[in-house]
Amino acid sequence: MSGTFNLYCDESCHLPHDRQPLMVLGVVSCPAEKAREVAVRLREIEQAHSQRSPGKRSAPGALSG
Predict the structure, then answer these.
(1) Domain of 44?
(2) Residue ranges of region Disordered (predicted)?
(3) Number of domains present in the structure of the chain
(4) Quick one: three-class SS letters along 8-32?
(5) Does the residue 19 lie in any domain?
């Protein structure tokens, strides 16, 4: 296993006038060599439940360590 991890980040939708004083940030990580396997499995789960995740699909960032 390499020392590179993909990070997937998302935030709650905080708008200045939505009367919500809080904003939440979240991060999920996985080893880079497992990213394809995880993506395939997530799509299988989405299809099985006829759902699309609310997250945006974009290229992951990499973190080496």
Answers:
(1) 4-55
(2) 46-65
(3) 1
(4) EEEECCCCCCCCCCCCCEEEEEEEH
(5) yes
